């Protein structure tokens, strides 16, 4: 326990400015997503572009691919969430997934998990022994799924964010990004609040 605590203290001391900016902007973007506020996208873009750099530096290539994916999908989500009807009301509403949509989500996750795991395994055997294929693939594939569903305002996106956060906490800690590990712990708590808030809105939207 003392060793882990000391590692945490040392890690916080070594945290660079870029990581602080990434963490703060990431927390802000999740706060805005919880509120269903479109500001989550421009602020989130700052977070993702920084983490592309940090992830590659730490040989977290799966996470780097996730943040690149976030960047592209965030631009698309920004456009989709901006759409208004003739009354200037947001067209896209928060909804729960149907059974068939759940099956599609699982297939989407499984496809990305297998593809990322295989790619990282080969990378590990080649020139990046520091890669952790199963953990990086789990965090990455669940994040891919969560972001895809967030853009479509599906309630279940929060379940995938919870899985992403749980798997990312030890992953970044082991890689020496202690502040980022704490960041994912905070995101985990925020994800539960986000889930509760979106549940209320989904229920309201289905009874309009």
Topology (SSEs and partners):
Layout: H1 2-14, H2 17-34, H3 40-57, H4 61-82, H5 99-126, H6 133-151, H7 157-174, H8 178-206
Helix pairs in contact: 2-3, 2-8, 3-4, 4-6, 5-6, 6-7, 7-8
Gap from first CA to last CA: 52 Å
Number of domains: 1
Could you report the average pLDDT, rounded to the nearest whole number?
A: 86
Number of strands: 0
Helix share bin? over 70%
What's the helix-strand series? Answer: HHHHHHHH
The biggest beta sheet, please?
none
What's the gyration radius in Å?
Answer: 17 Å
Q: Hey, roughly how much beta strand do the residues contain?
A: under 5%
**Principal-axis shape:** globular
Structural class label: mainly alpha
- Low-pLDDT windows of residues: none
Number of helices: 8
Quick rundown:
The chain is built from 8 helices and no strands. It is an all-alpha fold and 208 residues long. Helix 6 (133-151) runs antiparallel to helix 7.
Task: Provide key terms for this protein.
208 residues; mainly alpha; 8 helices; 0% strand
Tell me what you see in this structure.
The protein is an all-alpha fold and 208 residues long. It has one domain (2-83, 95-206). Helices cover 79% and strands 0% of the residues. The chain contains 8 helices and no strands. It has helices at 2-14, 17-34, 40-57, 61-82, 99-126, 133-151, 157-174, 178-206. Helix 3 (40-57) runs antiparallel to helix 4 and helix 5 packs antiparallel against helix 6. The longest helix has 29 residues, at 178-206. The radius of gyration is 17 Å and the shape is globular. The model has no long low-confidence stretch (mean pLDDT 86).
